[in-house]
Amino acid sequence: MVGGVFRWGLGAVLLASVVPFALALSPPRSALEEIRYTSVPDYTRVIITLSAQADYNHFRVAADRAADRPPRIVIDFSSTRIAPRLRAPIPVDDGLLKRIRTGQFSPTTARVVLDLEQIESYIAFPLYSPYRLIIDVKGKSKETPPRQQAKQSRASPAPQYQIMIDPGHGGRDPGAIGVGGLKEKTVVLAISKRLGKKLESRLPVKVFYTRETDVFVPLPERTAQANAMKADLFISIHANASENPRLQGVETYYLNNTNDRATERLARRENGLTPPGLTSLESGRAPPGSDLSFILSDLHHTASEPESIALAHTLQDSMMTQVAKRHSKVRNLGVKKGPFYVLVGAHMPCVLAEVSFLTHRVQGKLLRSSAYREAIAEGLFHGIARFLKEELPRIKKDSV
User: Fold this and answer.
1) What distances in angstroms separate CA 229 from CA 11, 151, 281, 328, 340, one per listed residue?
2) pLDDT mean values, one per 10 residues, the chain (400 residues)
3) Going by DSSP bridges, is the β-strand pair 56-61/350-357 parallel, antiparallel, or unpaired?
4) pTM of structure
5) Closest C-alpha to 13, from 1, 21, 2, 23
6) For the chain, which domains are there?
7) Among candidates 285, 354, 343, which has minimal Cα distance to 319?
8) How many DSSP H helices and E strands does the chain contain?
């Protein structure tokens, strides 16, 4: 009896000591794979990519003069390890961030530290497929850099506004596939370039593109480019698709949550959560936890939501006016709200235009034609021109 009790007691002691040790050594479920940043002196977007979704916690730490430590933002990822190549500090020195450091805070917690020169505010939010945490850091603007001057081959007024045009998809991401194998990435790049030429030749604006060739640009880097350039407008151009070949029309979106299933299906495809060429939820389910109805109220882009709605209506009306002159049967699907990743975190009025359905028998063919692309680009041009003339001066005046 005594021996039996001793063996049970020893087993319990060993179990009590081994289990926590084993748990501590259990392999993390995700790995911190990449850190990228886009920055100007008063704005930096840091993009942290993980191999899988992970819980995270972030907080600010004040400067410690005694220990010669700068103010910093700390982000901890649970059940995450750091890839060896990311363990060296990443120098930034952009006037806002000094550097980005990483460390394995515990066997199961990876830590990222943003050492700061100065800060006014910051926000953090996740994106999915792949899983990324976006950190937008805003500093106190010391001096607004002069706007880049447009390349001029003739006498023209200096640019008054800056516009970022975002041709959707690109490179390894073809977007939707339409009638005859037409790719969304090809159509929207052609329309974007037409639009840019119209804007710079007919208005006092400077146009920038998130891509000018067939290259892949991650969604968060598109908005970051617009923020870094201090763009006055951000226009993302796409072409729609559906498993229902009868669906057709033109529609424009601004960023917000929605319960509309058709919009959610579209957002999943545009957000990269559905395989290219497919549109249904069943064919491309999002990873667990990547609910498209993410919390928008905490993001600073919401300050420009009324202006984005006004921009969306202006563009939609102008596109339909121009298209109807040539193709009266195109449906006006109106202005809608949707959770599109490419619009998250924009500092300016921003919209996403779906210029027609690639998968509709007639519209798919029209999107191949120069005349139809011209009508869409002309409609977008008139909408932007009207917004710049009637809405944006009032917005800038009210913000002073």
Assistant:
1) 65, 16, 35, 38, 21
2) 37 41 64 92 93 95 86 96 90 92 95 94 87 91 48 61 97 94 97 98 96 95 93 97 94 88 84 56 37 46 78 97 91 94 90 97 95 97 96 69
3) unpaired
4) 0.81
5) 21
6) 30-138 (2.60.40.3500), 161-399 (3.40.630.40)
7) 354
8) 8, 16
What are the two backbone dihedrals, phi and then psi, of residue 196, each rounded to the nearest 5 degrees?
Answer: -60, -40
Does the CA dihedral 67-70-72-74 come out positive or negative? Answer: negative
Strands of 97-106's sheet, edge to edge? 56-61, 72-78, 109-116, 97-106, 90-91
Do residues 109 and 30 make contact, with C-beta atoms less than 8 angstroms apart? no
Cβ neighbours for 8, distance < 8 A, ≥ 6 positions apart: none
Residue 196 one-letter amino acid: G
DSSP string, 176-245: -B-GGG-BHHHHHHHHHHHHHHHHHHHSSEEEEES-SSS----HHHHHHHHHHTT-SEEEEEEEE--SST
Write out pLDDT tens, residues 106-130: 999 999 999 999 899 998 988 887 8
Query: What 3-state DSSP class applies to 82?
Result: strand
Burial profile 315-342: b = 16 or more Cβ within 10 angstroms, e = fewer: bbbbbbebbeeeeeebeebebbbbbbbb
H-helix or E-strand spanning residue 270: helix 261-270
- Whole-angstrom distance, CA of residue 221 vs CA of residue 238: 17
Rounded CA-CA distance 390/395 in Å is 9
Place of tokens 């516009």: 163
**Residue range 155-206, pLDDT digits in tens:** 556 778 999 999 999 999 999 999 899 999 999 999 999 999 999 999 999 9
Question: Do 391 and 311 form a contact (C-beta atoms < 8 A)?
Answer: yes
Q: What is the largest CA-CA distance in the chain?
A: 104
Assigned token pair, 168 = 């959707």
